[in-house]
Amino acid sequence: MAKMKVKKGDLVQMLAGKDRGKQGRVIESRPRERRVIVENLNTVKRHMRPRPLRDSSRMGGTQMTPGGVIEKAAAVPVSNVMLVCPTCNRPTRVGMTTKEVKGREVHVRQCKRADCLQEIDK
Length: 122
Ligand SMILES: [Zn+2]
Prior knowledge:
single chain; 122 residues; mainly beta; SH3 type barrels; 2 domains; 6-stranded antiparallel sheet; two-stranded antiparallel ribbon; 43% strand; binds zinc ion
């Protein structure tokens, strides 16, 4: 499975859509779809119609489910968001670098801004 450079818990900025320029926290990543769900961003309104509950007539009288509008965050393509670097607080592309931890080489994500280049995962 292809790994995404944006993962759960990251702060990202939207690059497209009605929430362009806004920032939010990734609450779910779907590498299979190459999409992420960002808290409170790219929300879609679901209109819920009031409808009778099934089997409610048995209990005397028909009960209705409440109708209304529910706002839900929809998945966005990962290409439509950019990671916000926790060090310089700017949206950035993500680079990969390696470092040695206890004698082993591990891959770490890195801010690609030339004047920053800090690790993203601390
Ligand atoms: Zn940075």
